[in-house]
Amino acid sequence: MVLSVKHLLGIKELNVKDIEQIFQTADNFKQVLQRSIKKVPTLRDITVANIFFENSTRTRLSFELAEKRLGADVVNFSASGSSVSKGETLIDTVNNILAMKVDMVVMRHSASGAPWFLANHINASIINAGDGINEHPTQALLDAYSIREKLGDLKGKRITIIGDIMHSRVALSNIYCLNKLGAEVTVSGPPTLIPKHIASLGVRVEYNVKKALEWCDVANVLRIQLERQHKPLFSTLREYALYYGVNRSMLDSLKRDIIIMHPGPINRGVEINSDVADSKHSIILGQVENGVAIRMAVIYLLSGKREMEQ
Ligand code: CP
């Protein structure tokens, strides 16, 4: 069992068979994670380096746990406190880590395209853990996997992605993944946070959040990425919450139950209220739980490809 790719750089490069194979493998690993001993020795000959040039809580811990659950050796690198501050380049940093006999690199970087650049310069398999505003492939896989777990086959299911679509790598990877799996996607939020040509990716645009919620089976609510906005794109967070935040009264006014998702980190009271994030409709912590099984599956399947190419 191998994927069609040597690296997991983006969902764009995966085919439907790859995604289904990742899901089936994650099903098996999810069973392992329910046992009292949540480990398999499958990758005990592999060393993985997690190199994070940007902050992370969920993705970083989830990858580290996934690697350890597979029996791999793990090293962690953060740009802060490293020799990057002394001027070392990305390629030099990674080649020095690889010189210590590392087989696989999981990388988060603020520059869109950084993992593709690295893939052209080093030999190890690379997994993109989020690059700038471009892709966050394992987040999209765990999101789609979580919907599949709740609703079954994604074909024809209606997913609304709400919020800062413009600056969200989660939105782009989700759109690619959901489209490949046959789901219908609508994006919603302020016009200034939705790219002008987004419809060319095969999604609907609905600026009215209430209408977007009425249409969907699942709402994936995203954070406003203030750190990536270099000029004001809406008036105030209070006004954003008023017009685009998902609150309990909106959910109560819908004619049926919908599933609420959020990739985290949540800004409570801005894009989502606590009475929605913590409600019975929310699968936010289920997404986090599934992230470990999905990342175990990705690492396991890529390690097979690596062995074949040796
Ligand atoms: N969802 C996500 O990528 O969260 P972190 O930034 O905490 O990794």
Briefly, what CATH class of the largest domain?
Alpha Beta
* Global shape: globular
Radius of gyration over all CA atoms, rounded = 19 Å
Corresponding CATH architecture of the largest domain = 3-Layer(aba) Sandwich
Kindly, what is the distance between the CA atoms of the first and last residues, rounded to a whole number of angstroms?
A: 16 Å
Question: What's the arrangement of strands in the largest beta sheet?
Answer: 7-6-5-8-9
For the sheet with most strands, the description reads: 5 strands, parallel
Structural class: alpha/beta
* Fourth CATH level, the homologous superfamily of the largest domain: Aspartate/ornithine carbamoyltransferase
Task: Report the total helices.
Answer: 11
Roughly what fraction of the amino acids lie in strands?
5-15%
User: Kindly state the mean pLDDT as a whole number?
Assistant: 95
The run of helices and strands is HEHEHEHEHEHEEHEHHEHH
